[in-house]
C-alpha cells in the first residue's frame, strides 16, 4: 500500500439565488442561514459552514449533529459500533451505507444555489425518507459524524474544489494509499460520491495540489469564533510547497471575484437605464 503525506485546501466559486430553502432557514444579504447563524451557501468567512479564512478552516456545520445536538446520524454510528466489533468491517459498513443511499447531486440542481451544505441529520432524514441527495461536503459531514459516533478518529479534508472525510484506520489493508496527517500515517480517504468507490479509494486529482484536514477531536460549541480552532495540519505532498496563509487567501479571492463581477454588471445596467 502506497504511503503519501497530506495537507488540504478548498477553492470554491459560488453564485447566489434569491430563494429561501425552508422554514428552518432565513435569508440575509442574499444568502441562506440556519438557526445557528451558519451560512449554508458559503464556506468562507467566520459564519460560513466551513469557516474558511486566510488562517485556516473549521467544519463548524459538523457540530450541529454532535454533542447535545446529536440525533439520527450519531445514533446510526453508535448502532454500527454495536453491530460490527471488527473495526475494518465496521468502517466499510458505514461507508457503503452512506455511499449506497445518497445520490450525488449538484447543489444547483437540488437547491437552486451553487453551494448549499446540509448537516448530517438533514441528510440522514432524507435517507430515512428514501430520497437522499447531496454533493461532496454533504457526504463528508455525514461520514465524519457517523465515524465519530462509531468510535473512530475522523477528520474533514479539503482539496481544491472538493471535500471528503478521513478515518484513522492504520490496520486497514485494502486502501491503495495510506495518508499521513498530523505526522501520523494510517489515515484512510473516505470518498463516497461515486457508486463504485470503495473505502480507501483516493482520487488522482487530490495528488496534484495542497490539502488541509481538520480532525474532529472533541465536541465543540457552535459559537462563532474570531479565529478557527482545532488542529489544521498542512503536510507536504508531491507538489510544490505553498505558503499557508497565501493559499487560504486565494480561496477568499476566488470567492470575492464573482461578487465584484456582479456589482459591476449592476452598475452598468443602472447607467444604461
Helical/strand content category: alpha+beta
Q: Can you summarize the main beta sheet?
A: 7 strands, mixed
State the total count of DSSP E strands. Answer: 11
Q: Total helix count?
A: 6
Q: Unreliable runs, pLDDT <50, ≥5 residues?
A: 3-21, 229-247, 261-266
Strand content: 15-25%
What is the CA-CA span between the terminal residues?
64 Å
What this model shows, in words?
- This protein is an alpha+beta fold and 273 residues long.
- It has one domain.
- It has helices at residues 72-83, 87-101, 107-111, 120-129, 136-149, 244-272, and strands at residues 2-5, 25-28, 31-34, 103-104, 133-134, 154-159, 162-168, 177-181, 184-190, 212-215, 232-234.
- The longest helix is centred in the C-terminal third of the chain and has 29 residues, at 244-272.
- Residues 3-21, 229-247 and 261-266 have low confidence and may be disordered.
- Residues 80-194 form the Transglutaminase-like domain.
How do you describe this structure in short?
This protein has 273 residues and is α+β, with helices and mostly antiparallel strands. The N terminus is likely disordered.
